[in-house]
TrEMBL record:
One of its GO terms (cellular component) is cytoplasm. Gene3D superfamilies: Bira Bifunctional Protein, Domain 2. The lineage of its organism: Bacteria, Pseudomonadati, Pseudomonadota, Alphaproteobacteria, Rhodobacterales. Keywords: Aminoacyl-tRNA synthetase, ATP-binding, Ligase, Nucleotide-binding, Protein biosynthesis. Coiled coil: none annotated. One of its GO terms (biological process) is phenylalanyl-tRNA aminoacylation. This is Phenylalanine--tRNA ligase. InterPro entries: aa-tRNA-synth_II/BPL/LPL, Phe-tRNA_ligase_II_N, Phenylalanyl-tRNA_Synthase, tRNA-bd_arm. GO terms for molecular function: ATP binding; phenylalanine-tRNA ligase activity; tRNA binding. It comes from the Bacteria.
Amino acid sequence: MDDLKAKYLTQIADAGDEAALEAIRLAAVGKKGEVSLKMRELGKMSPEERQVAGPALNALKDEINSALSAKKSALADKALDERLRSEWLDVTLPSRPARHGTLHPVNQVTEEVTAIFAEMGFSVAEGPRVETDWHNFDALNIPGHHPARAEMDTFYMHRAPGDTRPAHVLRTHTSPVQIRSMEAQGAPLRIICPGGVYRASRGWRSTPISPWPTSSGCWKSS
């Protein structure tokens, strides 16, 4: 056992890379390694011999495994040091330019139109997209029998049975913003009311009606 210990500890210390170290591990403590074969011989020994040889073989196996682990760590540290010496990165170089998105064409046009009217003295007015039936239709003199108020063109908000609150809709135009602005500020006023509106989308095919926001705007000088 002393000869095996000296033999493999020397080989482990002289190993130059992980491949050589793995070959030493297989030769020493692998399934067919010398130490493993010695441990298989324990069954042929007398109980007295096993009491002496068993602990000694286990201690030898543990010592070889510890030496293998330490050498593997040393080889990894050496490889890292060599890599750090050979590879370098100039951290003062500028980073790669990041790609930035752009505004949607509708938003671009809206901003340009808003800027044009701002130069003419108009201000931007905004209002809710969920609007009362009164602001969306009645205040604009759209009568109750008008086709625009039909459910096939307008999206009405759901109300529970017995709910007596005024009906609400997804606004079909931005004209309700004019009503709210005149209620708050009176007249005369110079405003533009760009914003999203909702109308039933129907094509030539038989497709379900669904709310799609579209762009709308009104420019009023009242």
